Amino acid sequence: MIKYALACDHDHAFEGWFGSSSDYDDQAARGLLDCPVCGSKGVRKQIMSPAVAGTKAQKAAPEPNAQMREMMMTAMGEVRRQVEENFDYVGDSFAKEARDIHDGKSEERGIYGEASPQEVKALVEDGIKIAPLPPAPPKKTEVN
Hints:
The chain is α+β, with helices and mostly antiparallel strands and 144 residues long. The protein folds into 2 domains: 2-45, no CATH class; 64-135, no CATH class. 35% of the residues lie in helices and 16% in strands. The chain has helices spanning 21-29, 64-86, 94-102, 117-125, and strands at 2-8, 13-18, 43-45, 88-91, 111-113. The strands form 2 sheets. The chain has a 3-stranded antiparallel β-sheet. It has a two-stranded parallel ribbon with strand order 4-5.
C-alpha cells in the first residue's frame, strides 16, 4: 500500500491510499478521484517526504488533519446532543411539520426528524430554512 498526500484544485488537502502508484495513475486517468470536502474532480498529488523507518520507536505527532477531524467530530456531536435534548422529534413528519411551522399553521419551535431527498429539495426550493443533523457517533461496541 502507498499513501499519497493529495489536494484538489480548491487546495483542500487530504490523503489517499492506493495499492501501487499505478493504481493512483489509473484512478486519476479514469476520473475516479474526488475531493472529500468539495467533490472536485481536479485532484493532484502533493509533494511528500518519504517515510523512513528509524531504529528507535518514536511516538508520531498527530497529523493536523487528524486533529481537525477530531475537533469537528466533537463539535458535530455537541450540535447533535443539543438538538436531541432541546428540539421536538417529529419522525417521518418532518417535512410536513417544517412547512406548517413556516406557514404559521403550527407553533414556532425547533424540530428534527427524517425527510426524503425529494422532501428536502422541495423545502429548500420553497425557502424553508432546514439543515441536516450531524450523524450520531458510532457506538463503542460498533468500533473495531
